[in-house]
Structures are given as structure tokens and as C-alpha cells.
Amino acid sequence: MAPNNSVRHGRPGFVLEVDRSTPPTLFWHGEGFRLEKLPVGSRVIYAPEPVTALKDPDGAIRHALLNPLGDSKPLPDLLTPGMKLTICFDDISLPLPPMQKPDIRQMVIEAVLDLAAEAGVDDVVLLAALALHRRMTDAELRHALGDRVFDAFAPSGLLQQHDAEDPSKLMHLGATEAGEDVEINRRAAESDLIVYVNINLVAMDGGWKSTATGLSSYKSLRHHHNVKTMQHSRSFMDQHRSELHSSNWRMGKVIKDAGIKVFQIETTLNNDTFPDSFDFLQKREWEWGPRDRASFLAVSKTLDRTPDRLKRGIFHGIKAPHRMTSVQAGEVEAVHAVTTENVYRQQLVQVEGQTDVLTMGLPYISPYNVNSIMNPILVACLGLGYFFNLYRNKPLVREGGVVIMSHPTPWAFHPVHHPSYIDFFEQVLSETTDPLEMESKFEEQFATDPWYIHLYRTSYAYHGVHPFYMWYWCAHALQHLGGVIIVGGDPRSVRRLGFKPASTLRDALEMAEDVVGRDPSITHLHNPPLFLADVR
Amino acid sequence: MRALLFERKIAKYAAAAVAGRLAPGRGAKVGPLHLADIDEPELPGPGWHRVRPRLAGICGSDLATVDGRSSRYFEPIVSFPFVPGHEVVGELDDGRRVVIEPVLTCATRGIDPACDMCASGNTGNCERIAYGHLEPGLQTGFCRDTGGGWGLTLVAHESQLHAVPDALTDEAAVLVEPTACAVHAVQTSGVAEGDVVVVLGAGTLGLLTIAALRKLSLPGTVIAVAKHPEQRALARSLGADVVAEPGEVRRAVRRTTRSLANGDVLTGGADVVIDCVGSSDSITDSFAVTRPKGRVSLVGMAGSTTVDLTPLWHKELQLAGTYAYRHEAFPLAFEIAAEANLERLLSATYPLDRYAEAIQHAAEAGRRGAVKIAFDLRTERRR
């Protein structure tokens, strides 16, 4: 067995049918939880238990670099003195929650840098592949890269963050056969080699998306970050049925044809998501022991008395004990095929048939509010963008069905990270919740707003167009569903999103019956830890 | 005749001020306003007519008076006791319906030659409002001699009368006088074609200003700032392109004008801001969202207030008050009243004997989904 493979020791995913003896089910509820008694006959989908991690991750990384997949040469053979090398890495949106030290990026980049040093490469730049995300703070970069790498590169300006709004730092490479502009970071494009260091948390990540999206500009992104693409990605977690995937792959061909060499390093993680103090979150409720029950009670009671700001601080202080389950390197597509299988190995759960009503508890974190506030737009995106799309074959909920999400959905925004979200919420959503209408009427105004561009470039703000993408992420669900209800949310915020507020799950289920009929089938997504439902 | 009479009673005035501070409109219950049987006003001379009010609106300045919030500035230019009410549609003895132009100018006061302001047509700025053969009073509804719309009869000079077209309902006609104020506000605000204009406040005057902007100018974008859902819907239907809540105004103007910002103050901003509120907060917002060398028109009655004038100084803003109108504003106001279907802004009417309720409703209009509240005198029994 190659050292970059791990074996499963945790139990596979599980679909529980609720009966009278089933204890209440834990729902995430932002920076808190709700225990809900689901109706008898409901199904609860639990994630597989964590796959056993690689015993020697450093050895596995080195093995991957020396034994690449596809038609790539081993990394040492690609490194020559005098060459220009750019090492790109995934940004703060991965993994979730941020992992305990050492971060995978640090481990991989240190290995790459050792090889580069051995080969006498001295023109090396590290580049955070932000796309239109916010810049990372020094503390976040230091956490991701480790002290040694950060201190070696940051002071001399060799640790950079992609700037999608500096025309002098972008290069237009051409267009795909479908007419999609491909524009990526100039430093990366002009390098003799791009080494991309990826963390593949969900099946959508990685592959050509790393460079074609992570290093691109609005001009390029708009070809796939749009309503049509998202409505034709069913789901975007299933690369064989994802227009998002197809577009990125077309762009990848343009990158390759332009002579740009990419050495892709992809890693997968197990879903060991929460530290010991939150161990009950990893377990199935009927298997909670006295210690889990005590922990749950202690955490819940403490949270009840804790101000929101402090609660946010506590949760965002969580560092996940994620461990690496695989690492593969080499040619992009060959690497990604193996990576995807490794993601599936950890996350796939077989589910028989769709449901009328899908319930989900939304946690405090999404890819776009690390160390930040989960504002109402991100609530919608996490539920209808990400969780709804965690399927292969068919959506978990039938067409015309209802999604019930649990989250406080406060009318609250991080003013530094999400300035355009505030305007989007105040202006765009007060006029329309139709993704197509807002795309045609408002997107360009926000995308080209000089203030948002200034804040994206110089502060820590997501790009002006980003809230639109969050809403487009929901487009498939919005088209598919008959209704969306949020339990325990701020009614004003929920209504602004175009959804219905309910104060209890029981109320929400009664409201759902108005849409799907009496005695509906109900399925609960017990997530996180993450899983991907393979719906038959 | 029956009329609501406002008398100069210091103790009651103080009580109204206290009650009005506790809850807007409460001054009507404890203050110097009361329902009384009084003599009809005498015709002051030739050219004067008796007018039987049909509908008479309750204006923001009336509410300030009733709640004891009026500026002491007005003391020399009103005369007690007076019957309030200056937004009036009524009928003459011969049955013709008229809207009153309430400003008491040199012509009404028998002053000849007229003051410079009246002579130049700026009758709203008459310099003789405390002189001539009438007691002091800036308008009908604040003058002891003329009566006002909140009584069964008032007297008006022929220069104050505007015939109501047959097709126009009383409910629309009662909005004509405040619409004339809005016309004047727009005509004096210097809005140029393509300008970004902000209208702060979406009570009666704010909404009418939006309608007047659309009728009389060619702004590029009209941003309305409205607190309540019904106000927001009306603002949009009357011609606002963007509608924001009060706490959102700076962001709304910033993104519309694609301005940058220094803290809370925009580097650019709107060309013209028409402040129909007149509070410390609204004036502060006006200064914050107006571009350098832009103009702020103060339409809402400000009273005594505290505002940081630094942005006025630093951005070299023009700040101008706008009060009342010129005579020519009325024909335009009639057109707007008809074209914009203004009768929909009249939300409720009350008989005189329910005046406390009416005034409270007017004071809480926005929150209660209302715009204009008026007294309906058409069914009052005449003595």
C-alpha cells in the first residue's frame, strides 16, 4: 500500500429511522444548539465516522511529490536553479473549522520549499489564492503557513495575496471554446512552475478550480459564478453533473494550452471536526454517555448566559483536530480524480429516496465567515447553497419540497469583512430575491463599485460582487424548492431573505404541510461533521 | 360656530409641552387647544370672503404648536386666540370650492405699496406679516382675525383663493397646499438634469416633494429615506428610484453615487438633499451625504437644534431654508394633485369633537401606516 493511503476504521455513514425510543436530535443553531424531537418515522442522516489518518503525513507528502500522478515528472525534476516558482495555496475559507497546528498547508509547503532549496531555486513567491475573498490577516497566514515559512517570506514581500483588482498583476490568457475569458494572476502565469497546495474539504474543491478560480479576476469568474451555471450544477459537489466543474475544466485547458505548468498537490482530511470539549458533536445522540450529556448541558447552559460577541469568540476559537487522509500530487486532472475518491471515501452516505421536508441545523461557520459574523446572506448560502447541494444523483429533498433550517439569523454583519453584503441586504434583497433579476439589475453596479474595490484591495473585505455569488449558490435550491423556513431566526432578517420564520420546529413542520401536504416524509441532515448524500 | 381654539394659557402650554415630550400628539388633551363655540370671524374688508372648510389637514407645524414644541421665533408673528388649520379645501357662500393659500401677505393686510418681497412675487417671505389691518399672523390658522380650517368658518382674501377643478375631489384638494410647499422646495433647490437628489423623510411633505421632483425637474436618481413600510411603498410609487431606511441613508447614497468614504462621511455624495424632517439627525445626515459644494434644502421646520456644522464648512455646502411658496406654485400643485392621485395620501378624517384622537393619529401617522390626517367638516352641524 502506498504511504499516501489510509484505511477506514470509523463506521460508515448511517440513516436512522426515528422511533419512540429515539432521543432528541441535536440541531446546530448558530453559536448554539437545539435538541429537537423529530416525528416518528423521520430519518436522520449521520456522517461516517472519521477515516483513520495517515500515520506519517510528512512521509506521505514526500512520497507524493516524488511519485506524481498523470504525466507529471517528480517535483525535484521540475525544479531548476534560476527558475521562477510560485507556490499558491488555498485561503482562509479552508478547512472548516480552521485546523489545529500544524496546518496541512504548512506541512506541504515546507516539503516543497525543502526540495526547492535543494534544487537551488531562489525566486520563490508564496501566493494566497483568494479569488474575490477577503485578504488573510498576518495571524491567519501565520497559522496556515507556520512561523518558519511566514517569517522567511512575509518580511521580504515574498508572501503575497492575489489581487484580482490590480490590472498590472493579471494576465489574460485567452478564452475557452465557450467564450469564457481566462485571466489569472500574472506572477503565477509568468512562473516556470506553479505549485498549487490544496485542501480538499468537499468534492467541489480542487482540480482546475484551484487555479482557474482561485487566481482569477471578476472578468473570468463571472463566466461560471452566475445563476445559469449554478442552476445547471446538480449538484456542484458532483463533478459529472456540475456546470461549474465543466467551466473550470475548460478554463484549465486554456491555462495548460498557454504553456503554464501546474504541479497540483491535493490533500484530503478526515471529518474529525471538533476537539474533545465538543466531543458530543461527533457522536450519535443515542450513543452519548454521561460525559457527553454533561458536556452538552454545561456548554448549552454556558452559552445561554453568554453575550453573542463572546459566544462568537468561543466558537471561532475552535481549531479542528482534522487529520490528513491522503495527499497526491502531479498533473491536475489525474490528481483530482484520486482526491475525489478520497473525499467520497470519507463523506459518502447512501440514502434511499428523496424526502418531502429536509431539516438542517446550521452551525456558526461557513467558508466566508471564518473569524467573522455569519450574516443572513451567509445563512442562506450555507443552507441552500452548501448543505442542499451535498448530494449526488438526486437532491435529498424532492422538487417542490421544503427546507427547514435552524439558525438565529441575526440582522448582523461584519463591517470590515462584508461591507457590500450590508448594501446587498439593504438594497438588493429589499427589491428582489430572484437571482436572475438581481444578476441583471445589480451585479455590475456592485462588482465595479470603487469603494468595495478599495476595501477588497486594502482592507479585509470580500469583493463587492461576493454577496451575489452567495445568492447564486442558492439558485438551484430556490428553483427546486416549494418553500424555505427558518426556525428561531430574527423574523425581519428571515423575511428579507424571502423565507418564512417559525419559532419552533413543530410550527415549521406545520407550515411545511401547507406546501407538501399532510404527514410528509422528513429527513434531517445531521451535519457537521460533513457528509455527501448519495441519493438513490 | 364650533371651532378648535388655541388660546394663550401659559400653564396649559407647559402641560402640553410635557405631555408632547412623553408622546407626540398628547398635548391636544391637556394643552391650550379646546373645542369651543365662538363667533364667526368678521370680514376684515372689501375683497374678503367667508369660506366654509370642508376638509382641513393637520400639518407638522400644527402638531408642534399643539405639543408646545414651537419655536419662540413665532411669538411675534401669531395672534391669540386663533383657530388652527391652514391646509384647507372649503366652499364660498356661492358654493364654489376653493383651496386657501394661507400666507397673509401685504395684499391681505391692505398694505400698499406692498413690501419688496410681495412686490417681487415672493409672498411667502412677506415682510409685513405682523402689520396692516390684521392682527399678526404668518398664515391663516395662526391669526386671530381670520379663523382657521379647524373651525366651521374662516375668512379669506380673494388673493388667497384658488378655485378647485370640478374633477378634483376634496380628498385630493386638501393636499394642494402642502403640495405647493413641495413645489416651492423643488423650484428653489436648484436640481439640475441628472442630479442625484435625496429626500429625507417620507411624511406628507417628503412624499409630495418626490412627486414634485418628478413633475418639475429631471433628476437622475431620487433616493427617498423612509422609516415605515407604507411610506417606502408610497415613495417608490411617487417616483423614488431608491428607498432606504433612515439608518441606511449614507450607504444608499454612497453606492448610488459610487462615492468613497472617510469614516461615516462620504467623499462625494448627492448633488442636492431636501431635508423634509428638520431634526438634528436629519440635518447631520444631510451634511454627511451631500457632495462638496452641493446644496441642502431645509424644508422641515427645524426649531432649536444642535448640529455639527463642520461638514457644512469643510465641504462648502449651501444650506437654504425653504418656506411656503410663491402664488404660482398653486396651479402646479393642482396638476400634481390630479396626476399623482394624491387623494390616496389622505389616510383618515375625524370630526372636530374627536380632535384629540385625530391629533394623536396625525402625530403617529407613519408608525400607524398613515400619511395625512384631516378634519372632515362637511358633516358638522352649523349653528
UniProtKB/TrEMBL annotation, chain B:
SUPFAM superfamilies according to UniProt: GroES-like, NAD(P)-binding Rossmann-fold domains
A Pfam family the protein falls into: ADH_N
Organism: uncultured Acidimicrobiales bacterium
Superkingdom classification of source: Bacteria
Domain Alcohol dehydrogenase-like N-terminal: 45-166
Name of the protein described by the UniProt record: Zinc-binding alcohol dehydrogenase
Domain Alcohol dehydrogenase-like C-terminal: 205-337
Alphabetical keyword list: Oxidoreductase
Any one GO molecular-function label of the UniProt entry: oxidoreductase activity
Keyword Oxidoreductase: yes
